[in-house]
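Revision sheet: structure tokens.
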Amino acid sequence: MPAMLGPYGMSREASGTAWQPDSSPVLATMFHAGDWMGMAQGNATLVHSDQGGPRGDQQNFVESMAMVMANRPIGDHGRLGLRGMLSLDPLMGRRGYPLLFAVGETADGVNKLVDRQHPHDLFMELAVSYSHDLGDGRAAFLYAGLPGEPALGPPTFMHRLSGLDNPEAPLGHHWFDSTHITWGVMTAGFSTRTWKIEASAFKGREPDEKRWDIETPRLDSWSVRAFWNPTANLSLQASTGFLKSPEQLHPDENEQRTTASATWNKPLGPGANWATTVAWSRKDLQPGPVLNAWLAESLIRWNDRHTVYARAERNDQGELFREDNPLHHDIFTVNKVSLGYQLEVPVTRDVRLAFGGLASAYAYPRALKPFYGDDGLKSFMVYTRVNFGNRSLR
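Predicted:
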């Protein structure tokens, strides 16, 4: 299946218009219909989350995602692409699921979600693209989505191979990839065999608490991003963007976001692969403080069944307390390390069951201990997942 946005292998394309290493495995089921070539993948994960400490909580919930992509040639040098991604996450409720130190968005339009991860919208991506082959490995492309993903940050955590099997969102989600569901985005770009430059106009406001609807598009923000894939196993990214009024509860606050990331992938033989991502992001709130986030995650898979994954994060976290608390405006540096294991069992050629679990430990300033308890191991998740899509690694 050819790539949608340029004359290179489809394994290079990740979420939205983002790149990943060319050696990355393709985890999907392929199909053909006339001139159309497509791929489909999806999963549903039943999770039990136990977040410890005074501000922790327990909950059973299901997170899910289904994606279909298709493209076809247009004339001698053009290619039309369609992408659709849906989620039934709204069924878990507007408050999402418990996740210590996670902040962002709102469940009711009045109060910010704190120590909880918000659910995704029903419509995660409905996008169309056109690319034109300019010869000699060069291409120009246009991408438009309602919703879609602008050219800002590394590939979204749900699509990064290094974090693909981890059932919990990173604490830095709102530093790196909160724009992956954007209600209105247009991107134009130019690529060669090894590098790409692209720019987006998009809606800066994050999705509201009404997770089932389609929101009004607006192009009031911008971003630019560059990718460089110097080898088949490495993809480097740098980007910056201006987000107008991203937070519903702080409409007078804008944000300049800058990110850099490196993704490395190494095939280890049949049914085996090693993927790693290291990323940094800086949020310059206007008006407000400057917040930094660091992330490193890695995943090793072998025998096409066993997976071990880990994630380490360091975030300058604000808004952990509501406005009536004296610590509301304070910024705290929070460290988190997670380690997980997953066993996958084939059911059919395209359906697999997975069983896994992970545990997380934290370190944070002394001022937070009366509210979160002592440092150390504080949370875990156990889960079972149904995957649709051919999981065999190339």
